[in-house]
Write a structure and sequence with these properties.
Layout (H helix, E strand, L loop, with lengths): L2 H15 L2 E3 L14 E5 L2 E7 L8 H12 L4 E4 L4 H12 L3
Parallel strand pairs: 3-4
Antiparallel strand pairs: 1-2, 2-3
Length: 97
């Protein structure tokens, strides 16, 4: 599964759950390394960086991960094989099931 396909699976599931999500479609307008998705619902808000199974985290992405974690934000690095955990987190955010 490509990163784009994985992102679509996640955003479709967010839509189904009624979660709000944002993805910057023009990355030239955002800081290098900013997470792929910001997702919010009644259960809270998270940042998520998405990778294919073999995708690597860039230096800038790692800096964002560290900064967000240091600030107490919930930050996830997800790959397609993480789907059961992704589903669990998103359901929690939606406070469903």
């Amino acid at each position: 599964m490509t990163e784009a396909e994985f992102q679509r699976r996640i955003t479709d599931f967010c839509d189904w759950l009624g979660l709000k999500w944002h993805h910057e479609t023009d990355s030239r307008r955002s800081r290098k390394g900013f997470p792929d998705l910001v997702i919010a619902g009644p259960g809270g808000a998270i940042f998520a960086e998405l990778k294919s199974e073999k995708g690597r985290v860039s230096k800038e992405q790692q800096e964002w991960l560290d900064a967000l974690a240091g600030a107490g934000a919930e930050f996830y690095l997800w790959r397609p094989s993480d789907w059961p955990a992704v589903e669990k987190v998103l359901k929690y955010l939606a406070q469903r099931f």
